Write a sequence for this structure.
């Protein structure tokens, strides 16, 4: 029997004009209004503005959360439902919302604080590597301090994160078809985010996590879970932990989720 997984993208999937086609839907209007009260600015206006501004972490993350949450609700209202959910980095917040672990406002408050903390991070570097020597990369990561694989996206694409010195050293030593520095302020999904994670924990602890209505595959632990306490712990670890997306996709394949 074919099963369905809903997977939600994170930062980098934003585009100018996204969400505009939702503005006249009553349920979407309500969420856009609630979002403006929480954020202090309009998601719709931001999505119709300059690409450079929309691409700033401070704005990208809340905009994606609001729009993807609306889309998830519309699917549910139309009688559709997933067997599993997962989200890439920020996308995990929408996955948790779709699984009704927390309500829309609580999730947006979390994303608001997360985006502020990540936007304020400084001193790190992230580089995407395509078609690389994985064995050589993993050996270099093991022997080079202050660097990790932040996003293990596929067999042929990863993102490394750490101090500029460490990242540049690894890039210079590991053969890859392409190595592209990301336009981010800090070393996301690495131990360098520990101070931000500590501040975020205070916000996270104030939100009640219910048990999920469907299993959630988390970035730091790509195995299905529904317990609210487990999902909260995994979400806290996400800020400093690697996004194990390749393993999530393998898990979904094992679970016969042929419809993604």
């Amino acid at each position: 029997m074919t099963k369905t997984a809903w997977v939600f993208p994170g930062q980098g999937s934003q585009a100018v004009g996204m969400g505009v086609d939702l503005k006249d839907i009553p349920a979407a209007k309500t969420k856009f209004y609630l979002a403006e009260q929480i954020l202090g600015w309009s998601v719709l206006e931001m999505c119709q503005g300059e690409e450079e501004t929309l691409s700033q972490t401070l704005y990208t993350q809340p905009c994606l959360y609001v729009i993807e949450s609306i889309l998830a609700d519309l699917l549910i209202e139309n009688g559709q439902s997933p067997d599993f959910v997962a989200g890439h980095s920020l996308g995990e917040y929408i996955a948790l919302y779709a699984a009704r672990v927390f309500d829309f406002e609580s999730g947006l408050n979390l994303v608001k604080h997360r985006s502020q903390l990540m936007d304020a991070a400084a001193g790190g570097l992230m580089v995407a590597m395509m078609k690389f020597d994985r064995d050589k990369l993993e050996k270099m990561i093991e022997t080079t301090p202050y660097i990790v694989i932040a996003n293990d996206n596929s067999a042929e694409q990863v993102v490394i994160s750490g101090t500029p010195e460490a990242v540049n050293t690894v890039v210079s030593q590991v053969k890859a078809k392409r190595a592209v520095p990301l336009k981010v302020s800090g070393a996301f999904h690495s131990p360098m985010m520990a101070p931000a994670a500590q501040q975020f924990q205070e916000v996270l602890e104030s939100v009640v996590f219910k048990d999920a209505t469907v299993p959630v595959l988390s970035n730091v632990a790509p195995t299905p879970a529904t317990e609210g306490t487990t999902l909260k712990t995994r979400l806290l670890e996400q800020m400093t932990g690697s996004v194990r997306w390749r393993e999530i996709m393998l898990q979904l394949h094992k679970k016969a989720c042929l419809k993604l």
Notes: The mean pLDDT is 95. The two ends are 14 Å apart (CA to CA). The longest strand covers residues 125-132.
